[in-house]
Amino acid sequence: MTQHDQSSAEPKTDENRRQPFLKTSTGLAICVFLAVGGILLVFEHRVHLLGAWPLLFLLVCGGMHFFMHRGHGGHGGHGGGSDER
Question: Which region ranges are annotated with the description Disordered (predicted)?
Answer without folding.
Answer: 1-20
